Amino acid sequence: MTQLTVPLDFDVFISRVESLERNQRAEYIFENLGKVFGGDYPTLLKYAVENRNFWEKRCCSMFEYQTADELYQKALRGQLPKAEHREKEVILRLARSLHTESRLSDIIDASGDRAVTACYHSEALLKHINNKLELLTVYIHFCYALRRQPYQEETINTINSKALALAQELGVKDEEMQVLINFGRMREDKMDYGGALEYYRKALSILDTVIEENNAETNPKTIPEEFLIPKALLLYYIAQCALFLGNLGDSLTLCNQAVEYANRLQKDNIIVYIYRLLAKIYEQLGDQTSALEVLLKAEEVAELLGSPSIVGNNKLLIAGSYSKMGEHQKAIEYGLEAISISEFHESIPKHIAISTRVGGMMVIAGEFDSAYTIFSNLLSLIEKNEKNIDLDLHKQTILRNIAAISVHRELWEEALSYLQLPLKTVENPNYPPKYIIETLVIATDAFIGIQMFDKASNFANRTLTMSQEIPDIHNQFRGHNQLAKIAELQNDYAAAYYHHKEFHRLKELVYNDESDKRNKNMLIILEQQQAVRSAQEERIRRFELEEEIGLLSSALVHREQALKEIRSTLRSMQSTNEHAEQVVEVLQTVIRSSENAATSSSSKTYKLLDEKLETIFPTLTKIQRELCRFISLGHTTKDIARLMNISAQSVNTQRYRIRIRLQLKESELLDSVIKQAIKKLD
């Protein structure tokens, strides 16, 4: 896989740039901008543009163009002169500068226009000099930039297809894997989770092939570091798709696997995202306690990362978890922390969205005054910024929340005054149904309060109709409950009886469905826990077996040495002691007994290894497989010679013959090949 460059600290980069003369800056920026880690994005964009401008001027002067735009347009039409080596280098540098600017502007500019334009120009230049590898990199990022813009699906598909063909042509597996991930992300954007899953699994298969080609293991504890993030990330994507498809058991298993890989990463955003997904799975399973535990782990990692945005978002999730558990004060505490962070480190729409959620938690907690204060402050913020930013959806959500507070306080007229704007959207077919229904429900309660029963009945029936169409059983029984209340207040007891009956029927149906769901979910959690325990027990068993084999083998070496010394001593005793013969007989009996006992205790252990070796290396002789057995146990040449009762030279000769039979390359170590082969079979 492509090796990542070591990132530079942002402050170090800035300090170095400022210390250079103006004419030296662009060279330094070009060489190092892509390696910069973190920092102030607007500043980085400024340097990216400075870098690009330098190479634009240089390239234009070389080809005698007045403007860079003229150069790009010529490149787009294929009208540039045939580039020589020196010219190619300059054009390549300009293309790279454009690509750097594209990546930074994509982060900063929500529209992505600058990023897309830069990608088009970079593509044209790279095509002109026929640099396919650089072009592939541009294509991969091109898709990221286009995803930020509406109605670009066809273009993204085209570019992704170009990238995939190019990656396969060049034989670069890691880039091919990235392109497949891009296809998967596109499918997710369209909520085609089954289609996304196919692409992610293909990417994972490629990754596992690359790992195998590098003679590495996919085990979370032994996988090389450069494969850790892609492995964890792909498992995360697959687990997420499984969750959206309703396969909670598969999602939980895959996400726990991703956690095992991610846990080796000391500091990386992916750890936090995996923990958040795991928390979401537990929430879906109804295990709120486990969800909270996972989110608290994510918080620890988020704090280490030092990203205010990640920390703030995680605090919001923890607040939501506490709220669902009924620990409202804890929820509000974490929610206020999230608001405080978002005020300074998030965009205005994001800050409003976070604050609105926290305000909703306060309403659930019965803290109406605090919630009202938050919503009022948000309305003021919206009024200051709505000329520049489309905040209509946020404004209506806040107005609905304030209206709901007024309903709780039985301030019916006040509630309806806050609902004036939201009620205008109930006739809009393009408005999200869930928001329309929520507006209708709150308005119905207000109309009931002021005894406008015709209006209330009309809205409640609309709630019922819309919730049946979605379908949404929860709001169906809310609609029936409101209609029952209206009928009762109008002394229409037949209608009241009907709606009460439907209300209880649907409520019981929801309860039974949720009860069945909880039972199924608890079974999934139990099965997952049993699987984890089984895996742990298997790892312990294997460890104990390996330890037992190691100790036994070591003991055998020492035993053989001791027996040789005893035999030597006995031979000398025979010639000097009249009772030596009797002593010899006794000791030889002990030796034979010891040998028999050792043979018996080791036979089962050795038999297991011998069976594996026969399966793995069927072309080897029995003697060669016996030697492989001792090699797998970590014995030295000297030890093996003692155990097999042959010379060290004979051991080396056999090792050479084994290498020939296995057709090993000079770079391949026999010991490693044997040990890896046995582990793969386990």
Structure description:
With 682 residues, this protein is an all-alpha fold. Among the domains are: 1-130, no CATH class; 492-594, no CATH class; 606-682, Rossmann fold, CATH 3.40.50.2300. The protein contains 30 helices and two strands. A two-stranded parallel sheet has the order 1-2. The longest helix has 82 residues, at 493-574. It is globular. The two termini are 27 Å apart. Mean pLDDT is 81; it is low at 1-5.
Helix-strand layout with pairing:
Blueprint: E1 8-9, H1 10-19, H2 22-32, E2 36-37, H3 41-63, H4 68-76, H5 85-108, H6 113-128, H7 132-147, H8 153-170, H9 173-189, H10 193-213, H11 228-244, H12 248-262, H13 269-284, H14 288-305, H15 308-324, H16 328-345, H17 348-365, H18 368-385, H19 392-408, H20 412-418, H21 420-424, H22 433-449, H23 453-469, H24 473-489, H25 493-574, H26 580-616, H27 622-632, H28 637-644, H29 648-662, H30 670-681
Question: Which properties best describe this structure?
Answer:
single chain; about 675 residues; mainly alpha; two-stranded parallel ribbon; 30 helices; about 80% helix; about 0% strand; disordered N terminus
Major beta-sheet overview: 2 strands, parallel
Give the amount of beta strand, in percent: under 5%
Sequence stretches where pLDDT stays below 50 over 5 or more residues: 1-5
Q: Output the radius of gyration.
A: 36 Å
| Integer average pLDDT | 81
**Structure classification:** mainly alpha
Counting DSSP H or I runs of 4 or more residues, the number of helices is 30
Any idea what the shape is?
globular
Give me the count of strands.
2
Oligomer classification: single chain
Question: What is the end-to-end distance?
Answer: 27 Å
Binned, the helix content reads over 70%
Strand arrangement in the largest pleated sheet: 1-2
